[in-house]
Amino acid sequence: MLSILWAYLKQLVVGNASQRALRFVIPLSFHETRQYVFALLQMHNETSDEVTLAMKQWNSVSALPLSVIPKSVWPKDYPRIRIQSHIKSTLGDAVNLLKATGRVVSTEDEKYLSLLLTHPCGWSATYQKQMDEPWVHFFHEQYPQLINLTLILDSMTYPEELIDFPDGYDMVEQADFFLLATSDSFFVYDTTDGNEGLRPAGATLKDVYNGMKDWRWADSSENPWGFVDDVGCLDPELYFPHYHRLKNGNFEMALYGRGYIKEYPGRKRNVLFHNMFRKFKY
Length: 282
Prior knowledge:
alpha+beta, five-stranded antiparallel sheet, four-stranded antiparallel sheet, 9 helices, 11 strands, globular
């Protein structure tokens, strides 16, 4: 099936611009759209008309925005397609969270914060109303030695956002990275390298950006960040939720360590139309 899809996507990419536009109007699933854009990026620059048209058409019909990241910003990360975690989050929200730590936010700080907000993990400013959630309290209880530790950016999934997830976006993965700050230091909580932990990431946002760009969060890096001591010795499974889509289109949220499960509404699928569309394609 994947080979058939790839052949179809390559067929979409060839031809003139008007043909590509007409073909892309046919509603693809999230996964198919992302693969379509991947195929375009193999053949065109990220600023090309072909890529711009595809992204514009997708974002005109989806509440979950996609954006293409210039290779120069995150040269080691691929694919260069970003899904913003929180669609209502802004740069200003992130700046306000930084100011709450007692920092004076400079023009250079805003520059590097803007770059961090393009990271492929989907970093967005944490909503204020999330600050009392168990997964936020985890950081305070696990690292009580870090005074006024404040969450700035996350790539979590919030339950109220599930309703906007498009067809094909079924598996909601656990967040990869979190950016936290005190009045004088930044920290990145990393869940990607098989060894979860909080890593000291420098005194400035420039330090954070350069470290993320050079993959200093990975133990395989030439100069990896270290770890902050886990004073709380807590189990993250007791704090961080997991999601997956059910057959009825809704999502199930589970806190496995607490045995807690709850169902949240998702966008209903038009199964008949979706199946007809797949038969039309294949």
